Amino acid sequence: MVNEGTNQPPGESFNKVPLLIVLISGAFVAILNQTLLATALPHIMEDLELNANTVQWLQSIFMLVNGIMIPITAFLIERFTTRGLFLTAMGVFALGTVICAVAPNFGFLMVGRVAQAAGAGIIMPLMQTILFLIFPLEKRGAAMGMFGLIIAFAPAIGPTLSGWLVEHFPWRSLFYVILPIVIVDIIVAYFILKNITKQTFPKLDILSIILSTLGFGGLLFGFSTAGNSGWGSMQVVVSMIVGAVALVWFIRRQLKLEKPILEFRIFKYKIFTLTTILGMVVFVAMIGGAVILPLLMQTMLGFTAFESGLMLLPGALLMGIMNPITGRVFDKFGARWLAIIGLTILVITTFMFTNLDAQTTFLYLSVVNVFRMIGVAMVMMPVTTAGLNQLPSNLIPHGTAMNNTMRQVSGAVGTALLVTVMTTAALPEQGVSGMIHGVNVSFVVAGITAIIGLVLSFFLKGSRPEGEGKKIKIGS
């Protein structure tokens, strides 16, 4: 781990634009990389002579390692300098990209994906932490809006770009496209990135790292494989039990440590707890559009993979455009009414997907999805910002790590839940109509989740950005 330089005082004035470009570029390639591979999996299967179950691990392992790394980033942020941690994370990501690009077999490809995920798992929470430390309270909404723009834009262009590349070039081109961006970002970061985060040099607790890995890794693996393997399969049951036991042990240990790896006592801040739950609820509802709709279009309505990606594109792009706008609105008015209006839109549009049939058109799916994404944009970044605003500076690394971890978990849970509902509620004997019935029921579940979020949003008080809220002493 590179570790040099002195810390930049958060309040010191400096040009934030170059710093933002470096951070956003790093986040962009990390998220783009996660979404590029899905379209290329059939080509990788053919080239390396793999079956579908094996090749899917290239996606699953990325999510697993990413989810395992995120909780540990709070410790890493407090232990190492901003420059050292960012350059190391991007360096590991670049190394993984090179390994993937030249991988002669599946084993090397997996090693590359693990390295990429380890780097990406550090980059995202680190970027959020830096944004909160360099921007004053009244400007954090706009800053997080720019962050949200990247989060939405990268997945929007990922599948389309990937589809075009694998049609015209070998699948390895996906990694060669990302590599120059990563290298340029590392070079620029070396010269302009400042040390923002404060080093407190917490003690490395090996047992906590092991428990965190088993806990979050076990649960993520269990939920992510339940949709395909079934909830009763041995690997799902065992991984869920191991994950749950390890996570409980991990939490109990963190509450006893003077300097924990991940600070669970931040949930004493009520607004942070509420906004974290709201973010998870919205993410579960949003997963319906990202996972269920492409399955519906390709397996039931006869659309191609490219067409299903094209259907999602306007909604994802508009969500990206909306994020900076909702960020500025948050800076003026707070999160409460943004969340209430956004969740109302999300509830209505989700239930508009509960009456689909074999005649449902591309235009209907695309337009309704656009409005769903507008609703998501009004909630996701504003409530995240409102929650993190409640935390004092020393707890922001723990807040961003916890927020990203909970989002990963809710994504895995949401995918498994909605796919399971879709398959169990389907009526195969009724043909396409019976299969679509399963999709409708899954959106009913997603709609109920959105209603829960709407009810919770009315309790979102004191989320205006004027102050950091009541400070609660957190210690042993």
TrEMBL record:
Any GO CC annotation of this UniProt entry: plasma membrane
Broad class of the protein's primary localization: membrane
Keywords: Cell membrane, Membrane, Transmembrane, Transmembrane helix, Transport
Membrane topology label: Multi-pass membrane protein
Regions that span the bilayer: 17-37, 57-77, 84-108, 114-135, 142-161, 173-193, 205-226, 232-251, 271-297, 303-325, 337-356, 362-388, 409-427, 439-460
UniProt xrefs under Gene3D superfamilies: MFS general substrate transporter like domains, Multidrug resistance protein D
Compartment annotation: Cell membrane
Signal peptide as annotated in the record: none
InterPro entries: EmrB-like (IPR004638), MFS (IPR011701), MFS_dom (IPR020846), MFS_trans_sf (IPR036259)
Residues covered by the Major facilitator superfamily (MFS) profile domain: 19-465
One annotated GO molecular function: transmembrane transporter activity
Domain of life: Bacteria
Protein name, UniProt field: Multidrug resistance protein B
Species per Swiss-Prot/TrEMBL record: Oceanobacillus picturae
